[in-house]
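Can you make up a protein sequence with its backbone structure tokens?

===
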Amino acid sequence: MSVMLRLDRSLLVFLAACFLLVLVGFVLSGKESPQIPPAEKVKGVCWVAGDSVIIDNFADLNRIGANWISQTPFGWQQHHNSPSIRLETQHVLWGETDSGIRETTLLARKAGLKTMLKPHIWLTQANGKWRSDIVMDNEGDWQSWFTSYEAFILHYAKLAEQLQIDALCIGTELHLTATIRPDAWKKIISEVRKVYSGDLTYAANFYKEYEDITFWDDLDYIGVQGYFPLTYKMKPEVTDLESGWRDHKRVMRNLSKKYNKEIYFTELGYRNSEDAAVDPWTWPGQMSAGRRVVCDATQDKCYQAFFQSLWDESWFGGVFIWKWFHQTYRYNDPDFIAEKEERRERRKQSNPDWNVLIDFSPQGKPAEQTIQRFFSVAE
């Protein structure tokens, strides 16, 4: 038995020595242990709320390689200086109700998609103002507005936690409130973190806002509404648009480095018009008749330039495409389709300047194929 023990010990020593030699050789060779691959980029769309949703509505997103959707309920504020926000969870589009958000989230998850909840403020009597212009007239109104906003966003934070929604955008394009009262926003972020455990961001306007936000450290990543002007040209080439991205890229790269956070486009969209890259934020209904020139090719080139300029940047985390309409079972009903086309024709005849062909959606246009090409590339 003593001989066997000596042999066992000798064998153990031999095996240990071999292990050490292999380990030393591995280290000296300069090889590193396998690295954890980076997280997949957000390949998202801004989901348009409808009157119902079924699992089949997500098939097109699976087809193009999308992996996220964002959902947008609204808080209703009368004027830009009104100190209260009305939370409405019933008398709105079904997809904007709590039950609609719940059903959409669950079905999206079943389809393999993650979700971001992105509440917006809507001014019911804007009078030429935008939510970026929201500002109060006195200290009392400021206190009331933030109390009202906190109640509004906490409602959706609790809903997001209940539904295990992956990300929450705590505000969208609220420029003056965010830059004048950053400490109030820090407090809101702190309160949201008490009830919601997912990732947080804020959707800052591309113009005079995202660089001025001082509470990015309190959030998980930097959100930008990516409607940057890229050129003054009608029907530009892709090279023109790529040139237009250069300065914007430099600023965003520096901001990402400053805060050590990735930047996501919480929205990015282009009209299918000749001037889509001149002022990408302009709604088709606000365009003059002379500008209503349909150009699917320009929309497509805008997306090509975006992907070729930003998609491979390490600091760029992904995008939500504005916007994506889903089709419920009604859209497969021939009678409904005929009725819809008849309504469109009547509207066009009553307003010759109205062009139903200009909109932001890339669906069924060359831009959709470009999005699919980049969304589907393995990372």
Observations:
- The radius of gyration is 26 Å.
